[in-house]
Amino acid sequence: SDCNRHHIGKEDLLCRMAEAAHRPQLTTAVPRLRVQVGDGKDEYWEGFQRNLYVFFEGIKFAITSHTIFMVAATIFATFICAKGVLDFSFDFSMSIVAVGTVFPLVFSVQASFSRREQALKALAQIKGTTFACYLMFKTWDKTGDGKFAAEADQILQKLLDD
Q1: What does the pLDDT read at residue 21?
Q2: Contact at 8 Å (CB) between 31 and 51?
Q3: How confident is the model over 99-157, as pLDDT tens digits?
Q4: How buried is residue 154: exposed, middle or buried, by Cβ count under 10 Å (0-12/13-18/19+)?
Q5: Is 145 helix (H, G, I), strand (E, B) or coil?
Q6: pLDDT (0 to 100) of residue 30
Q7: Can you tell me the mean pLDDT for 50-68?
Q8: Are the beta carbons of 77 and 69 closer than 8 angstroms?
Q9: 10 Å Cβ neighbour count for 137?
Q10: CB 3.0–4.6 Å: which of 33, 67, 123, 158 could bond 47 by disulfide?
Q11: Rounded to two decimals, what is the model's pTM?
């Protein structure tokens, strides 16, 4: 490739975009099985074959040298630690796991709920203000024809739809 991999600039970005445009893309759509009343065995079988093909393409995509190495290393480490081979065992307290995982998880969930509550309060304020503006145009109309309320209703509906 002619693109500069060490410097990210406008020209490099354009070069990488051009490379990506010429790179083959994975465009396998997942076909759906059709259920048909009557004699639809051939279509069902063809749908099953297509789904099986997509499944094996996904497996082929997922199996790389890195994943094979990681699986082999995991199996080897488990075998080495078995009782019949080296008999490794660990005696540790679960409080380390509790402190290291449970407390940060609880704090992150609490923070996300507080952000959600703030967002809901802001949406409630927007809704209340919008309704107050609509009622202001509707009740303060001195002409009595409702022209301003209708215009405000259209604008507010457009605001809510976007």
Answers
A1: 54
A2: yes
A3: 888 888 889 999 999 999 999 999 889 888 888 888 888 788 777 777 777 888 888 88
A4: exposed
A5: coil
A6: 47
A7: 91
A8: no
A9: 19
A10: 33
A11: 0.37
Chain position carrying tokens 């949406």: 123
| 26 neighbors 61 (Cβ within 8 angstroms) | yes
Q: How many helices (H) and strands (E) would you count in the chain? A: 6, 0
Collect all residues with Cβ–Cβ distance below 8 Å to 47 and sequence separation of at least 6.
Answer: 31, 32, 33, 34
Helices (H), the chain: 10-22, 41-62, 65-80, 95-97, 103-139, 147-161
Locate the DSSP E strands across 39-124: none
First-residue to last-residue Cα distance in the chain: 44
Is 31's pLDDT higher than 70? no
The token pair at 135 is 């009622």
Number of residues in the chain = 162
Q: Using an 8 Å Cβ cutoff, are 49 and 36 in contact?
A: no
